[in-house]
Amino acid sequence: MNETNVVMSDPSFSLIEVTAFTADHCIKCNICTSACPYAKVTPLFPGPKVVGPQWQRLRDPDADSPDHSLDYCSGCGICTLVCPHGVKVMEINTQAKAKMVETHGLSLRNWFLARNERWGRWGTPFAPLANFALRNRLVRWAAEKVIGVSRRAPMPGWAGYTFRGWWKKQLRNHPRPEPVSDADRVVYFHGCSTNTYEPHIGKLAVAVLEHIGLHVEIPEQGCCGLPAQSNGDFKGARRYARYNIEHLSGYARRGIPIVGTSASCMTAIKGDYQHVLGVEDEDALVLAEHTYDFMEFLWKLHQEGRLPLDFRPINRELPYHAPCQLKAHGFGRPAMDVLSLIPGLRLWEIDADCCGIAGTYGFKVEKREISEAVGWPIVQQVHEANADLVVCDTETCRWQIQALTGGKSIHPVELLAEAYGITVENYRPPVQAERRAPAPSGW
Amino acid sequence: MALTNPLSTGTSSIAGRGEDMDVIVIGAGLAGLMAAVHAVNAGARVRLISQGWGQQMVTPGWISVCDRAEDDVIAEVRGYAALHPEHPYGRAGDDAMVAGLESFRSAAEAVGLPYEQRKKDGHNMRLITLLGAVQRAMIAPRGIAAGDLTDLRGPLLIVGFAGWRDFYAELTAGNLRRQGIDARAIEVELPDQNRWWDYWPGDLARLFDSAGFRESIARQVAPHVGDAERVGFPAVLGMDDYPGSLDDLSQKIGRPVFEIPTLPASTAGVRLSERLRRWLLRKGARVQIGHPVLRGVVEERRCVGVEVASLGHPTLFRADRFILATGGVYNGGIQTDESGRVWEPLFDLPVVIPEVETRADWYHDTLLIERGHPIHRETGLRVNTDLQPLDASGEPALENVYATGQLLAGFNPLTDGCAEGIALATAYKAVHTALELDA
């Protein structure tokens, strides 16, 4: 057995140590370079093979990377997916990026983007003012000049209240009976965006889960850590990871699933905590095992015969974008599988590896043009199909798609809720189901 | 037995449509991609799952059907298949081979990638490699086929790019001259030299998508054309704009241009894979390139699903039929270890292995040997004429699993000059038997 195989099959080596050794499986075939959506559009990034497995062998594991072009890697992970040899290209690059930050520190701008969770909470009481500022050209111009956040980057607006606050009020006004067994419990992980920018996603998710007959719990939780991780701030990301593990792993140990509507947050909890951040104690592994993306969870329920099929028809053909971080789950396209159960609804997947936003990448002024070029295939295909609505599981991708296409983008739960006839306050569905009653089963 | 052409049948009568997929194809090489195309064309719901892209990404891009054939390739294969029923061509049948090749060309044409063959005599083409060697192949992408030496009357001009380390025009031209082919080399400048790392072939191919870039190259080449009959370039003449970029460059230079395969990744393979993926997605298929299949889940000699190594917990994907296009010893479809164990990792299907004493005998002492090494020549799955893998007693090991391409025993994909032909023939045959499409 060669050295790499010894390391990879030895349980005393951690996943994060194994990652570096996968570089030895690289045969320099350039398949990753050919697939990288970023190297395709900019000469500033030499591509995943070069900055990954090729330069990995020149790097001192304890020192800064001698080359800094890997800052132009977005971390979308397409390279890891297309590699037929199992090289963890993106993971190698992300670790090297973290080493860079360790040596040179985090820029003010990147620190700001890595702490999105705080701005979400702190901006909430001042929503009207904050939203005015975000839409104000002068403010955006100043933000670009002073801290380097692109004025063209798509920004969400503060809802003015938090999802958690709404939920507390819900429980006070409509207390839910305790379920008989843990088999009927589910934990909802809302993520920062749902909490402060798009609470309607959380309200719909909770309503759908309750429609299915599950008892929803929303325990204390933090940012998933992905924004910090992708800016190379591993210290910050690990803090978030440990916070979530501490508050959620107890549920996982009882076999209660943890379900989230942001596919990228769920990638962090299921995979990045171990593969990228190296947090792999037993609690982290149990949590990963019991964590599900929302649509993945619903498809699992359907396979177990537990998903109600009382859907009203939605007669539409809609494009679907699978975010890069959703592809990283490796669970296929559960949103398409679940939504195909709705009569009349036809989805087709846009051929695009990444929308270009890649978490916080597309917000950075020096990368905005690259980000828009990466998203261009989406624009082309959506416009060719004359579509004005794109279905997508991750919030930053939806904002990017809306900014680039000029149309709307919705989470799959919005279609699902509409087909179930579920309505929540302050939310108008962009697609209407037929008002006729669902067909009786067996029809 | 007449086989229907899936590209003309439209929706067929597929029994037992549940909510799961009709077909899961495992592998994204030529066999896997075409199996998915055939199944979609037959009206099936298809999920393609693969650990990374397949071998077409690193091969020259032409379709070897029977490289050693001196005259009519199809006639040669028909004769060979009749005499060798155990060979994959014999297993698939020569009708499936012909239909597989034709439907591949139609599918490629449908995504805007014309593949050519010698219509007037059905012979192999004589195509130029990066080193200036001459290889035979029956079918090739239009740009590469334009270099077919069979009907060459005048000299060749080979064009390289100054400073590009993937292609040396003089190396190619010099070796051609040594074989009596009149060839000259020139180097032209790439307009943008402001980068400090190498171009990979795809970078240049995307530059050739731009008419302005083509103009700047043509302007440098035109003065050197002289009496050259054709002008050869490394195979980077366009990505998204291909093959329009080819015609435009020919017109600008005033001579037909052709392509010579370069180092990986193969632009021909990238074009084909990306465009077939888009076509499959638009037809509603799932294309999951990334996490590998860990194992098949079998109940009473039927595969009910495959488990994928997804994050956190494995995911089970169900279907009625399964096409294995996982490749051979070099592709992960068959695994080996240092103890000499050889196994098929998904279903633990019985594998034919070389009849030798020790693992050392898997290989000859010489690396480049005409018929190849025993481990490549003699390893693979034994199948029946429906392409179902067989168990030790010669019965189908599983009712609804079919094997294609380099996974099959009976040929050496590295040296026999027929790997792509077998991929296309068996992909066609497997889908047709799996979906019971025989007329």
Helix content percent band of chain A: 40-55%
> How much is the radius of gyration of chain A in Å?
22 Å
Find the CATH topology of the largest domain in chain B: FAD/NAD(P)-binding domain
Query: What level of helicity do the residues of chain B show?
Result: 25-40%
CATH class of the largest domain in chain B: Alpha Beta
Mean pLDDT of chain A: 92
Q: Give a quick account of the main beta sheet of chain B: strands, pairing sense, barrel closure.
A: 7 strands, mixed
- What structural class results from the helix and strand content of chain B? alpha/beta
In angstroms, what separates the terminal alpha carbons of chain B?
7 Å
Total strand segments of chain A: 8
Main-sheet strand order of chain A equals 2-1-3-4
- The name of the CATH architecture of the largest domain in chain B is 3-Layer(bba) Sandwich
Please work out how many helical segments of chain B DSSP would assign.
13
CATH architecture of the domain at 316-420 in chain A: 3-Layer(aba) Sandwich
Estimated share of beta-strand residues of chain B: 15-25%
CATH class of the domain at 316-420 in chain A: Alpha Beta
Structural class of chain A: alpha/beta
Oligomeric composition of the shown chains: heterodimer
Radius of gyration of chain B over all CA atoms, rounded? 22 Å
CATH homologous superfamily descriptor of the largest domain in chain B: FAD/NAD(P)-binding domain
Shape of chain B: globular
